[in-house]
Automatic annotation (TrEMBL):
Native source organism of the sequence: Streptomyces hesseae
Domain TRAM residue range list: 379-447
Stated family: Belongs to the methylthiotransferase family. MiaB subfamily.
Localization, UniProt: Cytoplasm
Needed co-factor(s): [4Fe-4S] cluster
E.C. number: 2.8.4.3
Keywords for this protein: 4Fe-4S, Cytoplasm, Iron, Iron-sulfur, Metal-binding, S-adenosyl-L-methionine, Transferase, tRNA processing
HAMAP family xref list: tRNA_metthiotr_MiaB
Domain MTTase N-terminal: 4-123
Cofactor binding remark: Binds 2 [4Fe-4S] clusters. One cluster is coordinated with 3 cysteines and an exchangeable S-adenosyl-L-methionine.
Name this polypeptide is given: tRNA-2-methylthio-N(6)-dimethylallyladenosine synthase
GO MF term list: tRNA-2-methylthio-N(6)-dimethylallyladenosine(37) synthase activity
Length: 498
């Protein structure tokens, strides 16, 4: 009898992507195997939806997907469907009512229960709904099926203590809970031992790390400790909050060689009036002051951001303040969002909801400005010689152009001419930048050096697995760090919540 197959469909931020790595690990630990790539919809034995609740139409998207699976499940009696994540935490009582063919509903705090709940649903032949109100076990203690051999997420905290009026995450993820530094560093060291050379420290409000332990400098200490781990080449983190971004963190970034000079710092709005309505605990002057300090310590730093356009009550003058900050800060790129009501948030019922056409017009002006700045900032990279870590699947046109793609230390995407020698994801290639576009750099000449790495060895080892082993359905893992902005008003690195 062949093993049961599974598929995980992931929506939302890096937290959900990392949780899905845990869900995959749990299922494989329980004997399931990932459905082969290209498996038709509904052909996996278990389909897991790891949901997001930060967009107004998140539930419509989920129920539309569930509806498509209903007739397939009728034809395949042994098939099971599970719904987890933020929407499950929020709508625990309605999912099974609206989609009675769902077998399991679980929340953000008890992802470790999924295999048990699936088995219980099978034996008892009825839906299992189990939502924990607080964290049962820190996610990093669970088995994991990581999507990359050379780069990894490392969760340092879960939950958030902020009360931003546009964000529902604290209600669904709970108050901030920090991991012990020793546990984090042990995980990083274990990953490096497996060949990982780049890690991204992950938290809903990553630089508030330590508030749970009463140590305001815990995050900067953690960055410096990562600098002592031999074989760890690149350290990134996402997403910080301006309120908690202190001088000791800037110093740690500048003084720790393997901490990359890349920063994703959510602005949300440049207007003090709007920031107050959003319940953001900083103002324009404070934000620009942080950017100035970062640039003074690291002139080469690439800074990206999140911006919401059309928050309730935003006037034309408020919007112009956002445009002013964008001109002053000169972000390498920005995730720009049209405000969308998050059900259950204070902002959803605020007066002054702005007409769609006004929001759209402002959004287009902001995107045009940021596009020009991104291009101007990228042009400054032409002529520079950069070490690029080769990535897997970042360049959609690589085969046609005979190029490879990867990330520079500051996280800019670089497409470069394929070297004569064999190069693997995780290896490092030294190239000279010859051309810049708004969202990528190009190195058209021959590579100056190729460094084969333990990370490349790890990728090669993983991909040398027996051919008959299912390759798997990808979770849609976002690139490590902040990718290029897109004109679509979809969720970004922190779902616009940081």
């Amino acid at each position: 009898m062949s093993a049961k197959t599974y598929e995980v469909r992931t929506y939302g931020c890096q937290m959900n992507v990392h949780d899905s790595e845990r869900l995959s690990g749990l299922l494989e630990d329980a004997g399931y195997v990932r459905a082969p790539e290209g498996t038709a919809e509904g052909d996996a034995d278990v389909v897991v939806f790891n949901t997001c609740a930060v967009r107004e139409n998140a539930d419509n998207k989920l129920y539309g997907n569930l509806g498509r699976l209903a007739p397939m499940k009728t034809k395949r009696p042994g098939m099971q469907i599970a719904v987890g994540g933020c929407l499950a935490q929020k709508d625990r009582d309605t999912i099974v009512k609206r989609a009675p063919w769902v077998d399991v509903v679980f929340g953000t705090h008890n992802i470790g229960k999924l295999p048990v709940l699936l088995e219980r649903a099978r034996v008892q032949e009825e839906a299992q709904v189990e939502i924990a109100e607080s964290l049962e076990a820190f996610p990093s203690t669970l088995p994991t099926r990581r999507e990359s051999a050379y780069a990894a997420w490392v969760s340092i905290s879960v939950g958030c203590n902020n009360t931003c009026t546009f964000c529902i995450v604290p209600a669904l993820r709970g108050k901030e809970k920090d991991r012990r530094p020793g546990d984090i560093l042990a995980e990083v060291e274990a990953l490096v031992g497996e060949g990982v050379s780049e890690i991204t420290l992950l938290g809903q409000n990553v630089n508030a790390y330590g508030s749970d332990m009463g140590d305001r400098e815990a995050f900067s200490k953690l960055l410096r400790a990562c600098g002592q781990i031999e074989g760890l080449e690149r350290v990134r983190f996402t997403s910080p909050h301006p309120r908690d971004f202190t001088d000791d963190v800037i110093a740690a970034m500048a003084e720790t060689p393997n901490v990359m000079h890349q920063l994703h710092m959510p602005l949300q709005s440049g207007s003090d009036t709007v920031l107050k309505a959003m319940r953001r605990s900083y103002r324009q002057e404070r934000f620009l002051g942080i950017i100035e300090k970062v640039r003074a310590a690291m002139p080469d730093a690439a800074i990206s951001t999140d911006i919401i356009v059309g928050f309730p009550g935003e006037t034309e003058e408020d919007f112009e303040q956002t445009m002013h900050v964008v001109r002053e800060a000169r972000f390498a790129n920005a995730f720009t969002f049209q405000y969308s009501k998050r059900p259950g948030t204070p902002a959803a019922t605020m007066d002054g909801q702005i007409p769609k056409e006004v929001v759209q017009a402002r959004y287009e002006r902001l995107v045009a400005l940021q596009e020009k700045i991104s291009w101007d900032e990228n042009k400054k990279q032409v002529g520079r010689v950069l070490e690029v870590m080769v990535a897997e699947g970042e360049g959609r046109k690589d085969d046609a152009t005979r190029r490879l793609s990867g990330r520079a230390p500051d996280n800019r995407l670089v497409h470069f001419t394929k070297p004569d020698e064999d190069v693997r994801p995780g290896d490092v290639v030294t190239v000279e930048i010859t051309y810049a576009a708004p969202h990528h750099l190009l190195a058209e000449g021959p590579s100056k050096a190729v460094r084969r790495t333990r990370a490349g060895d790890a990728w090669e080892k993983r991909n040398a697995a027996p051919a008959e082993k299912p390759k798997g359905v990808m979770l849609g893992l976002p690139r490590i760090g902040a990718p290029a902005p897109t004109p679509a008003p979809a969720a970004g690195p922190g779902c616009g919540c940081d």
